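Annex B. Sample input.
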Amino acid sequence: MCNTCEIAKENISVSVENGDRPMRPTFAFQWHITDECDQRCKHCYLFSEDARMACKSMTWDDMTLVLDSCYDFCDCVGGEPYFYITGGDPILHRDFWRLAEELHARRAKWCIMGNPFHLTDEVCLRMRELGCRKYQLSLDGANAATHDLFRKPGSFDETLRAAECIKRSGMWLALMSTVSSTNAAELPDMIDLAARIDADVFAFGRYCPTKGQRLEEFHMEPLEYRALLLACQERIDALAAAGCKTTFQKKDHLWTLLEWEQGRFIIPEGAACGKIYDGCHCGIAHMTVLPTGDVYACRRMESRIGNVHEESMFDLFMGQNMEAHREFSKFEKCDRCKLRGWCRGCPAVAAGYTGNMYAPDPQCWMEVD
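Annex B, continued. Sample output.
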């Protein structure tokens, strides 16, 4: 992959939203403005294994620096930033509303990945008026017993309450699940729940182990995971046939493998050998910014590429540390797979299991020569 801005121009995802401006490709920035959070979730990478970390928050001056650098980067590659504001819980940052007003003034595309506890009709309406398009809540079980096993007591009921506030405000309601052996059996029922409460988007991703004990506790075998995807697909197809309006985003790239097996995905004729068309966006169309200013290729694994105080977002994206995440020939299994350009599984899950992002995805059931 060439080390020029062409990588961004060719691979950043295309926006499908039409407004009063010409449609431009969007580049995603997952921006953690604070570590402050009123939960200590079992699978959280901030507080994993009962870590007693000192919570950090970005200063206002640093936030304006990040904004300027992100816009400069997108100007260089002919794109438009899309900010996923998160934490911790971003609402707990003392300058959250000031940032929301600045994003609105810049006519930015932005959304929030946060907690339900501080959401009211008034708060959600104000967010919507300041341009927040979507609010993503976590859903880790089809009932309180399972969901609250991962999160603090009462979280499930608060999530359902907050979902109503989000819908009433006019923001899109997104639900995101972290799936492991502990809650996998409930995933089809979570899909039903998302449809029942009229979520706009539902997606799930796999748990990234934080130590060997967690690996053993939450592991799923490849064919077990394939069976889970099949069960989810059956439920999604039934809901679609019944007129369900929820978008079930197939976030996990192993969906591509399943759909290829079924003939739902066909490798396009004329696809260039070795070119990356889809799959994991790590190193391609996504960067994460932490409260310290550290920039990661992916927040789900150790992938620090530098710090925005020391280098611009453009230089960080084009630098050798990020280039390491674009060395697709190093993927031990994926580089020999015919779906290399569209899948590559989840490098973060592979890193969680082995410490090596290039190792085979532990849930991939594809056999390659």
